[in-house]
């Protein structure tokens, strides 16, 4: 959506035609040399991240920060890495994660859910009161991930009612439309804050700036949303000793996401609002950009 | 890798469907070609071309013909069924 609507974000700007897409699932149809698994016909979720395995960060066990990663549908490098919204995609055999249930629609959530499992895994969520700011697909998947990780209470906020319906559907205890009820957050700022962990998934400067007042001293504010420029009152972070940090992409969480989805330990399917034939991609992207009309929009390539 | 060349194929109009017997089932690339039926405009009619969702610039999204990539050493070819928009 960032590429489609704005031509990119940060260092990721589209410079040449690029096939989009990094949340994909389908069936293995041919094996290259030296590959015996997964077998032809196996339904797989494709891990779009291929770190180099050789750079300083890969060798340190931090492939998320690989200096030479190839990520499907990413304009970080030029020539760009073409994405997965094609009828046929080649990937490394180890990037094809089998889905025993054969559910491609659920499997296509492996990538964004892995992002959320990574963010949740980097914060002390077990037994915590959690605030999710922004209830789009990532915010809603963060609700699912936080429940899985043992959150005690999850509050989700947004500026629209429609996304909050989805957040409740997947397990938020309480939702607040802060455009209609900005005062509803005030009690959470009392006594140095209420939440142990806050996930910012709106990608808005205003939510980033307001988060510190709602978190308890020594709590965590996890920035997951991309693209914002925030004006932040530093003293709020300093005096409450807030752990303010980012969470980006995923590593081993992809395999975890696939397993949890495939074994139905989590149910991501309520988040699919629309499925359109891939030939109607433009319509689908426009729909996905309208947050009052859609949650997760999927393209059907079959 | 999906760095397929952007070949324009004039023989495959986007809105036309084809009977399944036009699929070249003998090609080893298309081991599942019998499943490629004509359920809509998104149809593969040859083993060498496919359709992709390509962004040229902001808001300029096109359905384009590309050549089907071949899996190299250590790689697999996946027939995509679903893709989530992010």
Count the helices of chain A. How many? 10
Strand order in space, largest sheet of chain B: 1-2
Structural class of chain B: mainly beta
Largest sheet of chain A: 6 strands, parallel
CATH superfamily of the largest domain in chain A: Medium-chain alcohol dehydrogenases, catalytic domain
Uncertain segments of chain A of ≥5 residues (pLDDT<50)? none
Helix fraction of chain A, binned, reads 25-40%
The shape of chain B, in one word, is extended
- Output the strand order for the largest sheet of chain A: 12-11-10-13-14-15
Main attributes?
heterodimer, A: 302 residues, alpha/beta, Quinone Oxidoreductase, Chain A, domain 1, Rossmann fold, 2 domains, six-stranded parallel sheet, three-stranded antiparallel sheet, 10 helices, 26% helix, 25% strand, globular, B: 86 residues, mainly beta, two-stranded antiparallel sheet, 3 strands, disordered N terminus
How does this model look, in words?
The complex is a heterodimer of chains A (302) and B (86). Chain A is of the alpha/beta class and 302 residues long. Chain A folds into two domains: 2-112 and 251-300, Quinone Oxidoreductase, Chain A, domain 1 (Alpha-Beta Complex), CATH 3.90.180.10; 123-246, Rossmann fold. Chain A contains ten helices and 17 strands. Chain A has a six-stranded parallel sheet, with helices on both faces. In chain A, α10 (281-288) links the parallel β16 and β17. The two termini of chain A are 22 Å apart. In chain A, 52% of the residues are buried. Chain B has one domain. By secondary structure, chain B is mainly β. Chain B is 0% helix and 31% strand. Chain B contains no helices and three strands. The chains are: A alpha/beta (302), B mainly beta (86). Chains A and B meet through α1, β3, β4, β5 and β8 of A and β1, β2 and β3 of B.
